[in-house]
Structure formats: C-alpha cells, structure tokens
Design brief:
The protein is α+β, with helices and mostly antiparallel strands. Helix content is about 60%, strand content about 20%. Helix 1 (about 5-25) crosses helix 3 (about 70-80).
C-alpha cells in the first residue's frame, strides 16, 4: 500500500472504532475491536479487520449487524474524512489474535513439559 492509503486506513480505523462503539445501537453487535483497515491503492475499497469478544455465534451475529450498518458507517466516514469518494467497506475477522493465543498456549505447554525433566536430571 502507498503512504496515502496507509494514512487513510489509520484514520478510518480510528473513526470506525468510535462509530462502532458510540453510534451504532444494534443489539447484535457485541464488544468489537477494529484491529486494522487495509485500503486499496485507489482508495475505492477498505477491508476492516475486527476482533469480537465471544463465541462463534456472537461473532456471526456481530458480522451480520455490521453488514446491516455498513451504509451508515460509510456515510459517517464520508462526513468525517474528506475524500472524493468514500471507500466501500468489507468486514473480516482478524485471525491473528486467535493465532497468537494458540502459539502462546503451545509455548506454555512446552515450558510446563520441560520443567519436570530438569528436576529429574538434578
């Protein structure tokens, strides 16, 4: 991505976090964190990566609620960020948090398995 699309993505991330947290009153939308926004080079499309607190059912409901409020969020972004054309929003789950938690649990498991063998050697 270019420097401009990175700056637009960071600004959209900040604005979307505030819009989702304060303006949207849909009960399907739970605790959502906007982790990243990837904007295409021509600023026509933006992929919003989100992290949702809850189980798989809550995640799906949140995605449905965000899809329903996509038009409202796009118009809010258009008012807050001065662009010739407001990017179209696409929402995806950010799997990096789950991936990081999985790696951390594996490392903890390996460390806990190594400790008894060290005591046996002494």
């Amino acid at each position: 991505m270019s420097l401009r699309s990175n700056r637009v993505g960071e600004q959209m991330k900040k604005e979307l976090s505030e819009i989702i947290g304060r303006k949207i009153k849909d009960p399907r939308i739970g605790f959502v964190t906007v982790t990243d926004v990837a904007v295409t080079g021509d600023l026509q499309q933006a992929t919003v990566y989100i992290s949702v607190l809850g189980d798989q059912e809550q995640r799906e409901k949140t995605l449905q609620g965000l899809a329903k409020a996509k038009g409202f969020m796009r118009s809010e972004i258009g008012q807050r960020i001065r662009l010739r054309k407001t990017p179209e929003l696409f929402f995806e789950f950010d799997e990096s948090v789950d991936y990081g938690n999985r790696i951390e649990s594996l490392i903890s498991q390996i460390n806990s398995e190594d400790k008894p063998t060290e005591k046996n050697e002494e």
